[in-house]
Write a structure and sequence with these properties.
Strand content of chain A: over 45%
Number of helices of chain B: 0
Largest sheet of chain B: 6 strands, mixed
Order of helices and strands of chain A: EEEEEEEEEEE
Shape of chain B: globular
Shape of chain A: globular
Helix content of chain B: under 10%
Mean pLDDT of chain B: 95
Number of strands of chain B: 11
Low-confidence stretches of chain B: none
Radius of gyration of chain A: 13 Å
Structural class of chain B: mainly beta
Helix content of chain A: under 10%
Order of helices and strands of chain B: EEEEEEEEEEE
Largest sheet of chain A: 7 strands, mixed
Number of strands of chain A: 11
Largest interface: A-B, 21 and 23 residues
Low-confidence stretches of chain A: none
Oligomer: heterodimer
Chain lengths: 112, 109
């Protein structure tokens, strides 16, 4: 059984660019949650997908968007990147919307 | 608003016991989680409490008091590898996780 995987591991972009981050959920998990974690802070909830539909969203602007595919893998898209978007982006999958979440290794994004 | 409070940093000695506290105020409560996060890595699940009382899992135990909005994580027989940040998270009425900023635990020989 494979765990949660994310790609890429590291990414450098410039302000104004767009980025797509990818996540493959753990086998059997139908729910994916995305988080942004700044250095020294706890994860901030971006949104959650359950069976291909958005199931809750945190306090992030519309330029943060996502998608979940039929195999339950997911993408996080961020448009018009800003310097403050530099952070660790974590994806977590779970068996259901309220179940324990298991995290991938994260994507570290640096916006210059 | 929703709020989760944990101490920013704690120091303990190898072989000793340490208790990390977490207090919360959230819109609804559907369980409390503790995660461990080593520097530069993803959080890993440690424990889950939904009913009052103590849950023990090896060297780690977690306690919950819903009436007081309080939990603690107890780590026994500390090892150097326990040096990490410990994150408290509450599942709210929408079944979303609200996270504390984490407690950085430093273990000294």
């Amino acid at each position: 059984e494979t765990g949660v995987t994310q790609s890429p591991t590291h990414l450098i972009k410039t302000r104004g660019q767009q980025v797509t981050l990818r996540c493959s959920s753990q086998s059997g998990h139908n729910t994916v949650s995305w988080y942004q974690q700044a250095l020294g802070q706890g994860p901030q909830f971006i949104f959650q997908y359950y069976r291909e539909e958005e199931n809750g969203r945190g306090n992030f602007p519309p330029r943060f968007s996502g998608l979940q595919f039929p195999n339950y893998s997911s993408e996080l898209n961020v448009n018009a990147l800003e310097l403050d978007d530099s952070a660790l982006y974590l994806c977590a999958s779970s068996l259901g919307r309220g179940e324990t979440q298991y995290f991938g290794p994260g994507t570290r994004l640096l916006v210059l | 608003g929703q709020n989760i409070d944990q101490p920013t940093e704690m120091t303990a000695t190898e072989g000793a016991i340490v208790q990390i506290n977490c207090t919360y105020q959230t819109s609804g409560f559907n369980g409390l989680f503790w995660y461990q996060q080593h520097a530069g890595e993803a959080p890993t699940f440690l424990s889950y409490n939904v009913l009052d009382g103590l849950e023990e899992k090896g060297r780690f135990s977690s306690f919950l008091s819903r009436s007081k909005g309080y939990s603690y994580l107890l780590l026994k027989e500390l090892q150097m590898k326990d040096s990490a940040s410990y994150l408290c998270a509450v599942r709210d009425s929408n079944y979303q996780l609200i996270w504390g900023a984490g407690t950085k635990l430093i273990i000294k020989p």
